[in-house]
Amino acid sequence: MVQTMTKKHFGIMGFGTFAERRLIPGFQKAALADIVALTKTDASKARERADHYNIPHAYSIKDQDKFFGTPGMDAVYVSSANCAHAGDAIACLEAGKHVIVEKPMAMNAAECERMIEVARTCKKHLMVAQCLRFNKTVEHFKKLVDDDALGKLVTGKCDFHSDGKKSTRTWKYDKKVAGGGAAFDLGVHVIDTMRYISGIPVKRASCATIPGVLDATHVDEVATFLLEFKGDFIATCESSFKTKRNLLLELFGEKGYIRAFDWNENLAKVRVESEIEGTFKRYEIVNMDMYAMEIDAFCKCITGEAKNPVPGEEGLINQRIIDIVNAEPEKRRYKSSS
Q: On the chain, which terminus has fewer CB atoms closer than 10 Å, C or N?
């Protein structure tokens, strides 16, 4: 049954730098949602940040029962550390809340499978926050593919390089907290983007990293994935903490190509060039706030007005691919079971 659309009330679990930089502006622009509660490790800091943003309720992360009892709270955006995604999402689902969980979905595929099963049992929606599916540049690429403007896809490339030394999130180098390095933080974005744009299942994947040998504490600082899709389409997806910021997205088909620079920047103008059936173009695409669009899309899912745009099953596929980064070099292979 489709419900009447009214604003859905969200809590944010794990209210840190990401939530302040990305989620707060996103919720402020979202037409269908607002924030009614948040959690942080420290209760007093939670109250201080809640007051700063005029959010009614604030709790310590340990006070989950009180958090789940927040009057009128329909859903939770889980933006805690990667190692807490599965436990936090499952707790929210079992408390009767719909859940958006940040990427990567979890620490490994087994945790993802458990999250999906709990969501199914609790009859609640579980969405993975692959925000770049709501990026206008990605949307433009996907429309060209869906309209067959490029013809049969041949090769693709999707890169997300970011200087890790400039990040305040030092925990992303801690394997126990992050699960992996560049692959888990950035690689999951580029893999999902190439999967989403092409609409073609991945049949095999392989991975190379720097450093080449990883252990229980060291994470990959550079990860390059080679994706082999059904139907003779191949793509490379690069992620890096060691290099200067470099963002490139390109697709080559039998009828032509399209390329975008700085493709995933939020609220920015993106330079695009294409040559399709002999016609060369240069133009710009304006990326809107993808977090606001992501949140509103989930609200429509909750009310039954639209399907879940990124269900847990999609996150599981991405997770199975990025998980291979933690295997021994000679075993970094993925093969689809379908």
A: N
Question: Rounded to the nearest 5°, which phi and psi values hold at 203?
Answer: -95, -35
Q: How far apart are CA 94 and CA 96, in angstroms?
A: 5
What does the pLDDT look like over 274-307, one tens digit per residue? Answer: 999 999 999 999 999 999 999 999 999 999 999 9
Whether 294 contacts 145, CB under 8 Å: no
The answer to whether the beta carbons of residues 99 and 124 sit under 8 Å apart is yes
Are 318 and 20 a contacting pair, CB within 8 Å?
no
Provide the 8-state DSSP code for 10: E
pLDDT score recorded for residue 216: 86
Domain 8-131+293-306 matches domain 135-289+319-335 at the CATH topology level: no
**Where do the structural domains in the chain lie, given as residue ranges?**
8-131+293-306, 135-289+319-335
Least confident range of 166-180, 289-303, 309-323: 166-180
How many Å apart are CA 35 and CA 55, to the nearest integer? 6
Question: Taking Cα atoms as reference points, which of 298, 267, 315 lies closest to residue 21?
Answer: 267
Look up the CATH architecture of domain 8-131+293-306.
Answer: 3-Layer(aba) Sandwich (3.40)
Percent of the chain with pLDDT strictly greater than 90: 93
SS3 of 173-213: the string is HCHHHHCCCHHHHHHHHHHHHHHHHHCCCEEEEEEEEECCC
Superfamily of domain 135-289+319-335: Dihydrodipicolinate Reductase; domain 2 (3.30.360.10)
The enclosing H or E element of 169 equals: none
Give per-residue pLDDT as tens, 120-132. Answer: 999 999 999 999 9
**106 vs 34: CA distance, rounded Å:** 25
